[in-house]
Design goal:
The chain has a single domain (about 5-300), classed as Arginase, Chain A (3-Layer(aba) Sandwich), CATH 3.40.800. Helices cover about 40% and strands about 20% of the residues. It has an eight-stranded parallel β-sheet with strand order 2-1-3-8-7-4-5-6, sandwiched between helices. The chain has helices at about 25-30, 35-40, 65-85, 100-115, 145, 155-160, 180-190, 200-205, 205-215, 250-260, 280-300, and strands at about 5-10, 45-55, 90-95, 120-125, 170-175, 195, 220-225, 265-270. It has eleven helices and eight strands. By secondary structure, it is α/β, with parallel strands linked by helices. Helix 3 (about 65-85) runs parallel beside helix 4 and helix 9 runs parallel beside helix 10 (about 250-260).
Amino acid sequence: MGAGLHVLGAATSAGAHGPGQEEAPATFRRHGLLQRLADCGLEVVDHGDIVNLRMQPDPEHPRLASADRVVAAAQAVAAHVEEVLAAHPEDRMLVLGGDCTVQLGVVAGAKAALDDAVGLAYVDLDCDLTSPVDGNGFADWMGVTHLLDAPDADRRLADLNGQAPLLTPDLLRLVAADLATPYERDRLASLGITRFTSIEVEADPSGTVRALTPWADGLALLSVHVDVDVLDQTQFPIAEEQRDTPGLSLDALGELTTGLMAHPSSRILTLCEVNPSRPQNPAAAFDRLIGLLTQALGSH
């Protein structure tokens, strides 16, 4: 019997500026993800898509669009993560997003199940520290703000299931996070958040993992969030958001993710921001992303 891996589809683009990401979980399955994971010796349990929400314009709420739908999606994810962790305390999870706001549900569910130190390694080119006061109006860019219950956070998201704050700054690490608005830079400084740049990670992914290890050693559970817009999109165009900043190579991201998931406290890997309509050759692109996931989850 292989190690248990629970796959949860968080098929939502409710927090995004456009549709597409809600198609990612089904597309991963269609391109053979589950069989590839099983071929690695994992006992794969597919929970299907636990939420299905497509982005809808919300011009009546320009500061924070579709907040109630974002909360509903996060609550669905939280309920399933809590249930899986309670029933299978030794198993791991792969959460397939969806937009980045699904991480609110992942952390909330883990926190409810463990009532202990849940940490998050947030691998993303953006810091996601904008707010309804200073941002573009989409919750997708505000995930970290609401995880931390930072100033200007919206109560509906920050106090998800009555657990604010979902994280404190000492339980968060921003990895490969280069892009920050002036507002976000002020937030980073005031909250004292530890951040690694993409240049650091690309130069030495294993060194980044080693630098994070003492922090991870103190956690009851480490959740790893990967936003695919961290990739160099001139080489690998698959993310919802298009970036001019180079970002990481797929090899560096694979080495980083594999190293993080090798830590004994690593239990959940969340992959977000995949838009299946972006790549010119979807089969080849998904084959390579599935290779990254199988390496990260199947080699331990």
